[in-house]
Amino acid sequence: MTIRSSMWATVAVLLVVALVPMLAMAADEDPLQDVCVRDTAAALTINGFACKPFAKVSVDDFKFVGLKNPGDTNNANKANVTAASVIQFPGLNTLGISAVRIDFAKGGINPPHTHPRATELLILLKGELYVGFVSSNGAVNTLFATTIYPGEAFVFPRGLVHFQLNVGKAPALAFAGLSSQNPGVQQVAPALFMPDIKDEVLEKGFRIDTKTVDMIQKQFRM
Ligand SMILES: *[C@@H]1O[C@H](CO)[C@@H](O)[C@H](O)[C@H]1NC(C)=O
């Protein structure tokens, strides 16, 4: 090995070593104190939220009652996701966790979407759900889908496109935990067909014609 090529090999190794911790930090950071209840009045903008003074923290900051009531399923999806993330539940700040309640009317769907920052562990309480996600492993799309029943759980790995469809004869109810205080959600169809993306991008991206693009766009116009 020449001096030059061994120098480049060293640089490459150093780059890999430097990048590994960055990849490992793609999830929420670990907390640096026991509690950091979101100070909803703080004007400060940081990656996460400022903590309210510990002296003002009370047990109520760690309790959330917003998952008790069913969401209204009288909408196009016949389903409703009620979130308990750091926005609704300030006590979750820095804890790397959140939850949702999902109500489904008969035939209701939680359409294909992703959570950029969270793995989701869903537990079905009532009904029958056809659930699944698409893996991108090896750049080949692989579907993992099945039907689950009350008491059964299903996990949707972080960032992957996933869905739930009520295939039972009655309403369904599920709760899920998510591995981020702020999982984020991106609905696949509205994300692509609502904004002013040039038609040509969608025509070529989906291999469809202008009419079909317009027809789908119309479904997601408010
Ligand atoms: C979900 O349910 C809540 C509570 O009933 C309601 O305010 C909200 O508009 C519903 N969302 C949709 C998309 O129907």
TrEMBL record:
Q: What domain of life is recorded for the organism?
A: Eukaryota
Write out the residues that bind oxalate: N110, H115, E120
Where exactly are the transmembrane stretches of this chain? none
What keywords would UniProt list here? Apoplast, Disulfide bond, Manganese, Metal-binding, Secreted, Signal
Among InterPro entries, the record links this protein to:
Cupin_1, Germin, Germin_Mn-BS, RmlC-like_jellyroll, RmlC_Cupin_sf
Q: Which residues form the signal peptide?
A: 1-26
- Domain (Cupin type-1) spans 65-214
Q: What is its main location?
A: secreted
Q: Where in the cell is it found?
A: Secreted, Extracellular space, Apoplast
Example GO molecular function term? manganese ion binding
Q: What family is this?
A: Belongs to the germin family.
Q: What is this protein called?
A: Germin-like protein
Q: Which organism is it from?
A: Ceratodon purpureus
